[in-house]
Design a protein that fits this description.
Number of domains: 1
Distance between the termini: 24 Å
Order of helices and strands: HHH
Number of strands: 0
Strand content: under 5%
Helix content: over 70%
């Protein structure tokens, strides 16, 4: 996703790690996904927050690519691939 490490260090421990911890708990306690406990609601909220964050990042990158023109954004994977082939 081409995130600066400061942003990655700020966002992913807060959003992604609690999701993974709950998923690990669900592996060992198979009933957890089916009980509407506070942990279930927190997990759902964190998943929605992570989806929103990633979706906003993708939209922002797509807008940068389309505003500058086709494949002129420095972080565009197609530009890096084309530069490697040239």
């Amino acid at each position: 996703m081409s995130l600066p490490h400061e942003e990655s260090d700020r966002v992913f421990p807060r959003l992604y790690l609690p999701i993974m911890e709950e998923c690990h708990r669900r592996v060992f306690a198979r009933w957890r996904p089916f009980l509407l406990t506070p942990a279930w609601w927190q997990h759902r909220g964190r998943c929605n927050a992570l989806d929103s964050y990633i979706g906003a990042h993708i939209k922002q990158r797509w807008q940068a690519i389309t505003q500058v023109g086709a494949h002129k954004c420095a972080s565009c994977p197609q530009r890096r691939a084309r530069a490697a082939c040239a």
